[in-house]
Amino acid sequence: MAVAWEERIEEIQREIQKAGGLDKTGEEIIAELRRTRKCLWEAEYSRKYDRNVGEALNWLEASVQVDGEAAEAVSEVFNRYGRGGAVLSTDFDDELSDTAVVTVKTYLPLDEEGLKTRRRIEEALWHMSQIYPLPPPEFRELTEDDWAHAWKKHYHVLHVGQRIVIKPSWQEYKPRPDEIVIELDPGMAFGTGLHPTTQMCLQALEEHLEPGAKVLDLGTGSGILAIAAAKLGAGSVLALDNDPLAVRAARANVQSNGVPDIVTVEPGSLDKAAEEFELVLVNILARVIVELADQGLVDRVRPAGLMIAAGIIEEQEAEVAAALGEHGLEIVERRQEKDWVALVGGWR
Question: What is the chain's mean pLDDT, rounded?
Fold first, then answer.
């Protein structure tokens, strides 16, 4: 309604200008129309989103079943457009199969703007399907209560490695004395701990981080790796991301986890990290790692330091290893979970 009103007001304004311009009376009419539109929008917003109002908003669940290679690309689309970002669940064709089937879901409010967002998602996935085979997304309508249950059921207390626990804010958990707890709710930024690349990074981080180390987290997303590094004993962490939504989400997560004195979140990429670090974390797309390698990524690793690189499909591993090797970094450790690979590199 609000969008349609604004478009109609602009049409009226253009017609008046064509007829000789706005006089004082015309300006007052336009101002009054805008005030009316604002009141209608506020009433509409309150009706749909105010939890104190009895009428609840319905939702659209969008889902796509893909293989592991396509899951991250679809997640990028859903993280950008969906309310609460993307959620992923993995199944296998049968008990003996290594072929993963990943269901990627997101949720849209069932209103005028949500329907426009649905079209944007359909268009984005169609363009992707011209490069890599994807089925069309499936949509189903949910009530408010169905929606709350649908996305929350994907998030439980998650144990990663020996000591790391990731939990959503609505669940209680009593940690063991040696465990560190990261409280993280799903949001618009990639990285909730569910994805294999994030889990492998956390495992490698737990194993290789030295107390007091200076850490760079490039492409921080939700900030999960930066927060984990801080809680595992890093002296300082610089977390960078080009996405403004990720920067806001990471800053909020750093604050809620009580590590703002250790973790600094900034917008940007390598240009914001001029110094050297004992540990560099790069959990992004393989092609981006290759590009960054030619832009000085390896130079950010201090002598005797390490880099943990992930977001790599098995077929892309050789290209990433070669790109890092060209600049002097040798792969000293390799981790794999189904289609996904994480590499640990150090100076030769």
Answer: 81
Nearest alpha-carbon partner for 282 in 201, 192, 191:
201
pLDDT in tens, 252-301: 999 999 999 999 999 999 999 989 999 999 998 888 999 999 999 999 99
Residue identified by tokens 């893909």 is 66
181 exposure class (CB count in 10 Å sphere: 0-12, 13-18, 19+): middle
145-200 tens-digit pLDDT:
776 676 677 677 889 999 999 998 888 899 999 999 999 875 544 566 667 888 99
Nearest to 68 by CA among 286, 247, 313: 313
Q: Half-sphere exposure of residue 137, counting CA atoms within 13 Å on the CB side?
A: 26
Q: pTM higher than 0.70 for the full model?
A: no
- CA pair distance 340, 46, nearest whole angstrom: 44
Q: Note whether 202 and 208 are within 8 A (CB).
A: no
Helices (H), the chain: 2-18, 24-49, 68-81, 112-129, 144-152, 196-208, 224-232, 244-256, 286-293, 317-326
**Residue 314 CB coordination number (10 Å):** 13
Percent of the chain with pLDDT over 70: 74
Class for the domain spanning 59-146: alpha beta
Report which residue type is found at 46. S
Interior CA angle at 169 toward 165 and 170, to 5°?
Answer: 115
Topology of domain 158-347, CATH: Rossmann fold (3.40.50)
Do 291 and 228 form a contact (C-beta atoms < 8 A)? Answer: no
